[in-house]
Amino acid sequence: MLGNYSPAVYQPTFSIDQPDDMVAHILANISPDSLKSYLLKLSSFENRNSGSDTTSSTTGIGAARRWVYQRFQQIGLENNGRLVPSYLQFDTDICGMGQHRNIFAVLPGLDTSANGVILVEAHIDSRCAGLCDLDCPAHGMEDNGSGTALVLELARVMSQLALDRTVVFVATIGEEQGLLGADAFAKYAKNAGIPLIAVLNNDVIGGIICGQTSSQPSCPGLNEIDSTQVRLFSQGGFNSRHKQLARFIKLQYHEEMQPLAAVPMLVSIMTPEDRTGRGGDHIPFREQGFAAMRFTSANEHGNADVGNSNYHDRQHTSADVLGVDTDGDSAIDSFFVDFNYLARNSAINGNAIAMAAIGPEPVDLTVNKSTDSVFVDISDPNGYGLYRVFVRSSTNDFDSLFTTPLTHFVFKRPTGTFFVSAASVDADGVESLFSKEINPPTVNATGEAEPTSLPAIELLQNRPNPFDEATMISFLVNRELPNRKAQILVVDAAGKTIWQQDVQLKLGMNEVLYEHGYNVRGVFAYSILVDGKIVGTKEMVFAN
């Protein structure tokens, strides 16, 4: 993972090294049947709680992790030893057990001068209602056998590709007790200096049926079906590396894979880092400074509130099984995990990983604006000669996308607040990971910053708006305001305060995530108060 190897040792049998061929290979070779076989095997271990049996050859977390290691090992043998399996051992108490192992496999990149390592992961552990119930049937098929199967299938399919950058496939332990396996791996990567440039977490990624409850932002209602949408969660808003990674994944799918897909998918970039009150393995990686995001099904069967007597959904219960036998022939004929849907989500992952693994180095940029124009200057020491410039305003997606051979690029200024970022493009038409975002200052005709007559604080329109799950409330601080107490306040139509949050007045762009809950509709107002006085108010619309 540090690049200390000879790439000649890890050459593929067949050189699938062109972007179009890679996309076609991923689409053609990810198999719903293969994913189903992995899930059946994972189900056979009965209980994959991180504190469960490690000595049995057939049940418990020990048998499960040995099987995953052996599967990685077999994939390596089938591909000239290209996939290298290993364990990452860490010591912490989980349900009375003090020693644990993440399972991972490394697909070494073929260009050790290419900067960065891409990591795709899922947690293999399962649980029932009791956090440390080591004996219950805890098949954990949606949560998170589906993610583990996805990682295994990607390891199989992508081991045949000629990728410049190294890709790491990981199955973590201890997610259900506090993201402990991911935390151990993220800290290991940080301490070892492993240059992770993208972390893709897959958790609850194969189900299509909505439960009676589901963690907000929620699905429509009991037994609603959605097999053509996947949600991408990531932390932050403006200039978030994590949101930029989610946007990269979505753009690669739309431009490279969707035109060839038999069933097109809706890739939804979500505002919050995760569902309300929930968390996933991408968070420890983000906390260690790595760009990280989470894939999750559009529909989720439960909010895991297993302590509630009215909770009847499958997640975090013994009912999280692969499916049921409806005709009494002892064979599952009605499945809770949709293998075709899981295959489509696997392909979206694989496409993004491949493009990130063969793409050019990112670029840096500076951006300024005048009253009618925006000026973008791209810094490209590699001289790629082609660039994409992205403009975003009120949503999590780009409003405009320009392709240009110019390192000094000018376009018409949009109205309102907007943000600009860029990517380099190589000779094969592959984009780099996206640059930082810039909210440009205003300059005059000679390129000098104009004296500002702006107020000390500008409250901006929330984004997205209207919204149905969560929204970013943003404000600009245009000059230093020391020793001031500030709050964001949300009120309903009757003027009743429904939410308030203390905020710091940091110079530049500031953002606060507001999650209102599901099935709320109407127009509400939000204000920023400084030392108890309102200095700005705007309206926002709940429209789910």
Characterize the structure shown.
- By secondary structure, the chain is an alpha+beta fold.
- It folds into 3 domains: 7-358, Aminopeptidase (3-Layer(aba) Sandwich), CATH 3.40.630; 361-451, Immunoglobulin-like, CATH 2.60.40.10; 457-543, Macroglobulin (MG2) domain (Immunoglobulin-like, Sandwich).
- It contains 8 helices and 23 strands.
- The chain has helices at residues 19-29, 32-44, 60-78, 141-158, 180-192, 241-257, 282-287, 339-358, and strands at 84-94, 97-107, 117-123, 166-172, 196-202, 229-233, 266-269, 292-297, 323-324, 334-335, 364-369, 373-379, 387-392, 400-404, 408-412, 419-424, 457-459, 470-477, 486-491, 497-503, 508-515, 521-530, 533-543.
- It has an 8-stranded mixed sheet, sandwiched between helices.
- The protein is globular.
- The mean pLDDT is 94.
